[in-house]
Amino acid sequence: MTIAQNIATINTLLQGTQAQLIAVTKTKPVSDLEQAYQAGCKVFGENKVQEMVSKWEVLPKDIEWHLIGHLQSNKVKYIAPFVSLIHSVDSFKLLQEINKQAIKAERVIDCLLQIYIAQEDTKFGLSEEEALALLQLPELADLHNIRLVGVMGMASNTDNQEQIRNEFKSLKVFFDNISVNYPLPNTSWKEISMGMSGDFLIAAEEGSTLVRVGSAIFGHR
Predict the structure, then answer these.
(1) pLDDT digit string (tens) for 102-159?
(2) Which residues have CB under 8 Å from 21's CB, separation 6+?
């Protein structure tokens, strides 16, 4: 199967759901990204800032770039001029830095709160309690150059589909809660980023609006 065929297959599977496909392009050569672009896929997800910047520099400027990996505060300045969405906000300190760099770039940058939903030790993400505490910080209102638009989560790396489904359900419930109870000036709750190559169909069924698919498009490394 070609990259274009894989994209067409996934988009067919996603028909009738709210989910939009993000092609996860980390570690992939620019030639693969060009094939995806030619196939009509114009939303790319990268894990590493340096790799994203180098690809952004050489590829068409109508591509939406999503930063889906862990983001260090000292790297925000490199992507602030062009990034469309940051999926992996896991602290108020990081939000403050994104806001600071967005001011310099004269932009408002959309962000997702990364919520820890897996039953395993992963390094990053806020617990639901930590996320609610962040949303209650009075200082959040001072960040005029960020917009919180939703949440991101990664399910456990398991073959147990019921567990994966329940983890996605929990993220959807949390999203519904904050979208009703935290209609803050710098929020526009609309995105739930969940689902990857192995579980994107379950995620789409459970209300994902953004699925992050790499190997099902480009093959395994």
Answers:
(1) 999 999 999 999 999 998 876 689 999 999 999 999 999 999 999 999 999 999 999 9
(2) 7, 10, 11, 14, 41, 43, 211, 213
Q: Which two tokens mark 123?
A: 């390094």
Reported confidence tier of residue 178, pLDDT bands at 50, 70, 90 = very high
Helical (H) or strand (E) element with 173 = helix 161-181
The packing angle between helices 30-38 and 49-58, to 10°, is: 60
What are the structure tokens assigned to 174, written together?
Answer: 């949390």
Taking 3-state DSSP, the helix, strand and coil percentages for the chain, each rounded to the nearest 5, stand at 45, 20, 35
Q: How many Cα atoms occupy the beta-carbon half-sphere of 212 within 13 Å? A: 24
Task: Choose among 82, 83, 87: nearest CA to 113.
Answer: 87
